[in-house]
Design goal:
Elements: E1 6-15, E2 18-25, E3 29-31, E4 34-36, E5 41-45, E6 58-59, E7 64-65, E8 70-71, E9 76-77, E10 82-83, E11 88-89, E12 94-95, E13 100-101, E14 106-107, E15 112-113, E16 118-119, E17 124-125, E18 130-131, E19 136-137, E20 142-143, E21 148-149, E22 154-155, E23 160-161, E24 166-167, E25 172-173, E26 178-179, E27 184-185, E28 190-191, E29 196-197, E30 202-203, E31 208-209, E32 214-215, E33 220-221, E34 226-227, E35 232-233, E36 238-239, E37 244-253, E38 263-268, E39 273-277, E40 282-284, H1 286-294, H2 300-318
Parallel strand pairs: 5-7, 6-9, 7-10, 8-11, 9-12, 10-13, 11-14, 12-15, 13-16, 14-17, 15-18, 16-19, 17-20, 18-21, 19-22, 20-23, 21-24, 22-25, 23-26, 24-27, 25-28, 26-29, 27-30, 28-31, 29-32, 30-33, 31-34, 32-35, 33-36, 34-37
Antiparallel strand pairs: 1-2, 2-5, 3-4, 37-38, 38-39, 39-40
């Protein structure tokens, strides 16, 4: 091939029984990380099919590309990164450190995968996505736009993560779940089935969101709360503790008593109506909430307003 940008050297390294060859630049290459000058020693490939002879892509340091994996366009692989199987890294994507990309994974645009992250199976990563630490993306998952995947978070199944969503901690997103916009999912949370998390919602602690639930607005779901069925939660709801919600009956009154409080009312999995007052850490039944209001010693006109609100909620939830 005329005008080759690199060639294989006699410096070899074994990888799972495969002999790989270190490369050397035959011309100056203007990569996204600066100019690789002619004569620069690069990383390792199994054969010339692993790194395109055209474009400005490059493999540096002790990075390795083997099998049917390809590095194209302006992609840059360095550190001790490993690209294997039939994975494709293209666009201006960067894979570095100890990151691994395998299977039929496809990474493009200006994606960055670093540290010890692992991308595998038929996962597709595009846009300006940033994946690092021990994050894992597999299955048919799709990550795009400006999403950030950190820590030991896992994206699997046919899940989609997009927008400016942040997934971190030990969070698991799988099934056909979709997480988008400016949402934050962290800790040991699990988003699955056909659940949708949007807006600026936050899912934290060990919460589980499943079924065809939709959560949006600035809602916060925390603790060991389980939201399932067809629940639709938006606005400023605060669901915490070990609440279990299975239908679409969720009401929020904000502000409630103070400008900083939120009253969330819902029917839980046992069909009981529950009241949750976030500031005072109150959670209980209708009767318990009425008793709580009476003990506040507020002026009678305020108490009457609260009673009216409770009656309205009862009618609304019971239909």
């Amino acid at each position: 091939m005329p005008n080759k940008k690199y060639e294989l050297t006699n410096d070899t390294k074994e990888f799972n029984g495969i002999t790989c060859y270190r490369i050397i630049a035959l011309r100056d290459i203007t990569t996204i990380r600066g100019i690789v000058t002619k004569g620069t020693i690069g990383g390792y490939v199994q054969s010339e099919k692993n790194l395109s002879q055209s474009g400005e892509s490059w493999i540096a340091d002790n990075a390795m590309v083997v099998g049917n994996a390809t590095v194209l366009c302006s992609a840059f692989i360095y550190g001790k990164a490993c690209i294997s199987d039939s994975a494709c890294i293209t666009g201006s994507a960067i894979v570095r450190d100890n990151a691994c990309v395998s299977g039929d994974a496809y990474i493009t645009d200006s994606v960055t995968v670093n540290e010890s992250a692992h991308i595998t199976d038929s996962a597709r990563i595009e846009g300006a996505v940033f994946i690092k630490q021990y994050a894992h993306v597999g299955g048919n998952a799709c990550i795009r736009h400006n999403a950030r995947i950190f820590n030991s978070a896992r994206i699997e199944g046919s899940a989609w993560v997009e927008g400016s969503a942040v997934i971190k901690g030990n969070a698991l997103i799988d099934g056909n779940a979709r997480v988008c916009d400016s949402t934050i999912v962290s800790c040991n949370t699990h988003i699955t089935d056909s659940a949708i998390i949007a807006g600026s919602a936050g899912i934290i602690n060990s919460a589980c969101i499943c079924g065809s639930v939709t959560i949006g607005g600035t809602a916060i779901i925390s603790g060991t709360a389980i939201i399932g069925g067809s629940a639709n939660i938006s606005g400023e709801e605060r669901i915490r503790g070990d609440m279990k919600i299975k239908d679409n009956t969720v009401i929020t009154i904000s502000p409630f008593i103070s400008d900083y409080d939120y009253l969330t009312v819902f029917r839980d999995s046992s069909e009981s109506i529950k009241f949750s007052l976030i500031t005072d850490q109150f959670e209980g039944t209708v009767d318990e909430f009425e008793k709580y209001i009476e003990e506040l010693n507020y002026a009678p006109n305020y108490i009457e307003k609260y009673r009216a609100a409770i009656n309205f909620i009862k009618i609304t939830i019971d239909g």
